[in-house]
Design goal:
Blueprint lengths: L4 H22 L4 E7 L1 E17 L2 E5 L4 E3 L9 E2 L5 E7 L7 H48 L4 H37 L15 E4 L4 E6 L5 E3 L4 E6 L4 E8 H5 L6 E5 L7 E8 L4 E4 L5 E11 L14 E18 L4 E3 L2 E8 L2 E12 L3 E6 L6 E4 L11 E3 L4
Parallel strand pairs: 1-22
Antiparallel strand pairs: 1-21, 2-11, 2-16, 3-10, 4-6, 4-9, 5-8, 6-7, 8-10, 11-15, 12-13, 12-16, 13-15, 14-15, 16-20, 17-18, 18-19, 19-20
């Protein structure tokens, strides 16, 4: 068999084509990936919490006696001065209406007291007469003694009788006063509710216990007020603090002095606040998703000047970003680049167009970024959100270049 030059050339060309097709068939295309350059930048870890403002010191004015609170002399929002501004007036309670049985008993008590008073007055009159007679006897005996007609023993006797008469007079006067008091008390039980009161006992006027504004009034119109009933609350709106609702697990790591940004309060710029204390008692609260959680209140003091937060008052809703940790320059990577490898963390870096798995150590973690403590250097390129196709040694290509 003879081979021509043309046949040989065609054969070689076919073999080259077959080799090229085999290479293309066996070649693995680079995996498109998202890349991120490791950088050092400021980093802040925050705990987000809903809060509510409240005035630090609220003074409640209560009724010191049972009676009727007159119509409020102040309105909500009025400014008051301690010890000067009258914020409430309470009139002593009027006598209650008597049923027929109670009235009959009260009338009988009045009659009894009247009889006792008359008896006491009669005894007083008798004592007064006895005293006048004893005085006259003493004066006569003294005159006779001076003329030498009466004996000294007679003078001593009449003097003693006068002293006894004067003591009996004093006792009769006391019994008369007691009888008068019993009679007045018995008559007071018959007073009707419309009898009124003496002008000097009309009202108890209550003044503001502190400088500030009137926050609330229990009832503006005149109304019955039992002893201790709240009437008016007073506070200083410039002295505000914030009560934040925190998870107990988050609150454990916070310390007094921790800074926080106050947002969504209604103003253009965030306010600054610092943690004053964490309340010692947590309680179970149900979240908006219906999950029972252990929550605790954190108290924050607003450090921004009152002039910069004008309009913010008691009971206003705010949103806090509590700065649990921050750094001016932290090496960081996106959370989406991390994956678990045994007990630690790892990422895929890109070297010479291929993915290389590398174990790293991380520190603080935020909502989007994590701090890198070891395993990476600034400027290295890593893969974010690696899929199942990304493995150690696989060729990769930046998705943005496709």
């Amino acid at each position: 068999m003879t081979f021509t030059h043309r046949g040989i050339g065609l054969g070689l060309a076919g073999m080259g084509l077959l080799a090229l097709l085999g290479f293309v068939a066996l070649r693995t295309d680079p995996v498109p990936v998202d890349l991120f350059t490791v950088t050092a930048a400021p980093m802040r870890i925050t705990i987000d919490a809903d809060g509510q403002t409240r005035i630090r010191e609220i003074f409640e004015v209560a009724a010191p006696i049972a009676g009727t609170a007159r119509r409020a002399p102040v309105a909500v929002g009025d400014r008051v001065q301690a010890g000067q501004s009258i914020v409430a007036r309470v009139e002593p309670a009027a006598p209650a209406l008597l049923d027929w049985r109670s009235r009959t008993e009260a009338e009988a008590a009045v009659a009894e007291a009247m009889a006792a008073y008359d008896l006491a007055r009669a005894e007083l009159a008798r004592a007064e007469e006895d005293t006048r007679f004893a005085t006259l006897q003493r004066d006569r005996t003294r005159a006779l003694l001076e003329r030498g007609v009466a004996a000294l023993t007679q003078m001593e006797t009449v003097s003693q009788q006068l002293a006894l008469a004067e003591a009996a007079l004093q006792a009769a006067q006391a019994r008369s006063a007691m009888a008068q008091g019993h009679l007045d008390r018995a008559r007071a039980a018959l007073l009707a509710p419309t009898a009124g009161h003496a002008p000097e006992s009309c009202c108890v006027e209550l003044t503001a216990p502190s400088d500030g504004v009137v926050l609330s009034i229990a009832t503006i119109s005149e109304h019955p007020a039992p002893l201790g009933a709240p009437l008016v609350s007073i506070g200083d709106p410039s002295d505000l603090e914030i009560v934040a609702d925190l998870l107990s697990a988050d609150a454990v790591g916070l310390r007094p002095g921790t800074a926080a940004l106050v947002e969504r309060w209604g103003g253009p710029d965030p306010l600054m606040a610092v943690l004053d204390r964490i309340e010692p008692l947590a309680e179970t609260r149900v979240s908006a998703l219906g999950i029972s959680e252990q929550r605790v209140d954190g108290i924050f003091q607003i450090t921004t000047s009152p002039a910069a937060r004008a309009g913010l008052g008691h009971g206003f809703a705010v949103f806090l970003r509590i700065i649990a940790w921050e750094s001016d320059s932290a090496l960081q990577v996106p959370l989406g680049a991390l994956f678990r490898r045994e007990e630690g963390w790892a990422v895929f870096i890109v070297e010479d167009g291929r993915a290389r798995e590398r174990a790293i150590a991380i520190g603080q973690r935020g909502t989007r970024m994590a701090q890198v403590l070891a395993g990476l250097s600034e400027g290295e390129i890593i893969i974010t959100h690696p899929g199942a196709a990304v493995r150690d040694g696989v060729a990769v290509v930046d998705r943005r270049n496709l």
